[in-house]
Design brief:
Layout lengths: L19 H15 L6 H15 L5 H22 L8 H12 L6 E2 L6 E4 L2 E4 L6 E2 L4 H5 L13 H20 L32 H17 L1 H16 L20 E3 L5 E7 L3 E6 L2 H13 L27 H21 L3 H4 L8 H11 L5 H8 L4 H5 L4 H10 L8
Helix pairs in contact: 1-2, 2-3, 3-6, 7-8, 7-10, 8-9, 8-12
Length: 419
């Protein structure tokens, strides 16, 4: 079997991807020079169906990217390793593909995220530095100077589950299109060979209440010292924890741009925040009295009235420079990380280094987890579920630690010398 030493990307970013349902041949033309297999009708059909399937998820950038990653890997492996269209793959070959994803060859593994395509002479051309798989090191190791190596590549259990789920959806789509007769992914009976069953609930990753006290106090101190830069920081930190927001729900993208008018007062005088969340579903998040006070402070700094008016179009989080809403999730991560770092140093100065260590690896999403974990202790979990936008109560239940506390309390006095 032939291996492609440096596989090239097939599918561009959403903003550069024409509609494959109507413009497939425009997408195909430049790729035929780089990928000879596409001169064959069955490979062209492979690509066309894959593009149509992935493009159907254009309502969410993150979902589009996930589905593109899995399907594109399958096509590249099928074409250049098995030398077969993906439409012809059997159940045992899908299993081979999963094994391949676990241990891809080094020339298929990159050590940094790079753009898939580049602009050249007014055209989009594949980036030769791109690889289907990327090795990473932990956030803490990277901060300590360790760089990723291809030998560091590791496919997590969550990634394997995502591969099974997305490819099963893909072959379900192909069956609906009458392109295949059966779903080879669904025919794999022993997925446990690849995906371990979790015997217990995973620990929710969050920061402690002490760490949060330092983080928010640090944000307040920075806002006092440099309001032009850090009043926005303070509001972001409060919004991420106080309303359990995901980072994607704070920045503008092709689906929506959060505005001040998304804060809504109902007929009872209660305030809500309207969010466009995962799956393009709108939800209303209850706004606490303290969160409303944080909003008033932020608006006063921005020389706005204390509370938003109906349908106010002011950007919720403005860009650092220029006009309009912030569009970079990376910029929000950097803002939060800077706050974490400063809180870490303050805790160390106060002799609390061991308590501060988690802040070295904490991410933006930990603030959402922290807010939910705290609220579920005192609020009905049905209310927390609605505010968090969880699809099922089982997700919210992950944040309830009562069972673990009671279990550990009953086991704390177990003797190593039974009488």
């Amino acid at each position: 079997m032939m291996r492609m030493a440096t596989p090239l990307p097939l599918i561009d970013n959403l903003e550069h991807l024409p509609n494959p349902f109507t413009q497939f041949h425009g997408i195909l033309a430049p790729l035929q020079n780089d990928i000879p297999q596409l001169s064959k009708v069955d490979y062209q059909r492979d690509l066309q169906l894959a593009l149509c399937f992935i493009y159907s998820y254009n309502g969410s950038q993150a979902t589009f990217n996930s589905y593109r990653r899995e399907v594109e890997r399958l096509l590249l492996w099928s074409w250049f390793v098995v030398e077969s269209p993906a439409l012809a793959l059997r159940r045992d070959q899908i299993e081979d593909f999963i094994h391949f994803c676990n241990t891809p060859p080094e020339d298929w593994i990159g050590t940094k995220n790079v753009a898939r395509f580049k602009n050249k002479m007014g055209e989009r051309v594949p980036n030769e530095e791109w690889r289907p798989f990327v090795a990473h090191v932990s956030k803490l190791d990277f901060r300590n100077g360790q760089v990723p190596l291809s030998q560091h590549y590791n496919l997590s259990q969550a990634a394997i589950r995502a591969t099974f789920s997305i490819l099963s959806s893909y072959y379900g789509f192909l069956m609906q299109e009458e392109a295949v007769q059966q779903n080879p992914v669904a025919l794999i009976r022993q997925k446990s060979k690849f995906v371990k069953k979790e015997v217990t609930r995973r620990q929710v990753r969050r920061i402690s209440n002490l760490q949060w006290d330092y983080v928010i106090e640090t944000a307040e101190l920075m806002a006092e010292e440099d309001p032009a830069t850090h009043e926005r920081t303070l509001f972001i930190m409060n919004a991420l924890l106080g309303m359990y927001l995901r980072i994607s729900e704070l920045v503008a993208d092709e689906r929506s741009a959060p505005i001040m008018g998304d804060f809504i007062k109902d007929t009872d005088g209660n305030w809500w925040f309207k969010v466009l969340s995962k799956g393009n579903k709108e939800r209303l998040v209850s706004v606490s009295d303290e969160m409303l006070s944080a909003l008033k402070r932020y608006r006063r700094f921005r020389q706005l009235p204390d509370l938003p008016t109906v349908a106010e179009q002011t950007s919720l989080i403005p860009k650092t420079r220029g006009q309009g809403a912030m569009t970079s999730s990376r910029q929000v991560r950097n803002i939060v990380q800077h706050c974490f770092d400063q809180a870490y140093y303050r805790m160390c100065d106060d002799g609390l280094k061991s308590d501060a260590d988690d802040l070295r690896v904490a991410t933006v999403h930990w603030l959402r987890h922290t807010g939910i974990s705290e609220d579920v202790k005192v609020r009905p979990k049905e209310h927390v579920r609605e505010d968090a936008g969880h699809a099922s109560m089982a997700t919210t239940d992950r944040y309830i630690d009562t069972e673990y506390r009671e279990r550990h309390a009953s086991g704390r006095k177990k003797s190593l010398r039974p009488s």
